[in-house]
C-alpha cells in the first residue's frame, strides 16, 4: 500500500511564514474579506493545521501586539533604580519598542489592521489592560508618592492608553520608529508621576 505524500499533517509548518502570508493577504484584500481557508490555501496547509497555530484570524493580528506588555515588564525589571519613575518608565517603554526593522514592519502592519478594522478594535481596549497592570505595579513599587488604588489605576490606564495611541498614530506615519510618537503622547502624562 502506497501512501500519498501530500496527505496528513505537514512535517513542518513555519509559523512566521503563516503570519507573513496572512498579514499580506489582510493588507491586500482586507481583513474581513480573507478567511482562514484562504490563508491555509495560500500557505499550502489545511485549515486544521492553521488552527493549531491560530484558532482565529484575529489571533494572527494580535499575537505580536500581546507581547508588548511582556517586553515592557522585562525592561522595567531590568531598569536601574536610578532616576525618576517617569524617566525610567519612558526609557523602559522605548527599550521595549526597540525592535529590529523587520519586526517593526510587522508591528506597523498589525497596528494598521487594528486601526482600520472595528472588529479588531474591541480587543485593542482589552489589550491595554495587561500593559496597564505592568505599569501600575511598577509605579506602585517604585514611586515616592503614595497613590491610592484608584489614582494608581488611573495613572496606569493613562500611560497604557498613551502608548496605544502613540503606536496607532505611528502606524499611519512614514516614520521608521515610534519613539517620537511615544514621546509626544507620554509627554504630558509622565510629569504627573
TrEMBL record:
PROSITE patterns, per database record: HTH_TETR_2
SUPFAM superfamilies: Homeodomain-like
Assigned keywords, A-Z: DNA-binding, Transcription, Transcription regulation
InterPro entries in the cross-refs: Homeodomain-like_sf (IPR009057), HTH-type_TetR-like_transc_reg (IPR050109), HTH_TetR (IPR001647)
Repressor keyword on record: no
PANTHER family, sorted: HTH-TYPE TRANSCRIPTIONAL REGULATOR BETI, HTH-TYPE TRANSCRIPTIONAL REGULATOR RUTR
Entry protein name: Putative mycofactocin biosynthesis transcriptional regulator MftR
Transcription regulation is among the record's keywords: yes
Pfam families, alphabetized: TetR_N
DNA-binding region: 35-54
Species, as recorded: Embleya hyalina
Molecular function GO terms recorded: DNA-binding transcription factor activity; transcription cis-regulatory region binding
Annotated HTH tetR-type domain residues: 12-72
Amino acid at each position: 500500500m502506497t501512501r500519498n505524500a501530500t496527505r496528513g499533517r505537514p512535517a513542518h509548518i513555519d509559523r512566521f511564514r503563516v503570519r507573513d502570508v496572512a498579514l499580506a493577504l489582510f493588507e491586500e484584500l482586507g481583513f474581513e474579506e480573507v478567511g482562514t481557508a484562504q490563508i491555509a490555501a495560500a500557505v499550502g496547509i489545511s485549515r486544521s493545521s492553521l488552527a493549531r497555530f491560530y484558532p482565529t484570524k484575529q489571533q494572527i493580528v494580535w499575537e505580536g501586539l500581546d507581547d508588548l506588555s511582556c517586553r515592557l515588564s522585562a525592561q522595567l525589571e531590568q531598569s536601574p533604580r536610578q532616576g525618576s519613575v517617569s524617566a525610567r518608565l519612558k526609557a523602559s517603554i522605548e527599550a521595549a519598542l526597540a525592535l529590529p526593522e523587520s519586526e517593526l514592519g510587522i508591528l506597523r502592519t498589525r497596528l494598521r489592521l487594528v486601526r482600520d478594522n472595528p472588529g479588531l478594535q474591541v480587543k485593542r481596549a482589552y489589550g491595554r489592560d495587561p500593559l496597564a497592570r505592568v505599569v501600575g505595579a511598577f509605579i506602585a513599587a517604585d514611586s515616592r508618592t503614595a497613590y491610592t488604588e484608584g489614582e494608581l489605576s488611573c495613572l496606569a490606564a493613562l500611560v497604557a492608553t498613551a502608548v496605544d495611541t502613540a503606536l496607532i498614530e505611528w502606524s499611519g506615519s512614514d516614520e521608521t520608529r515610534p519613539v517620537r510618537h511615544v514621546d509626544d503622547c507620554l509627554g504630558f502624562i509622565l510629569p504627573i508621576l
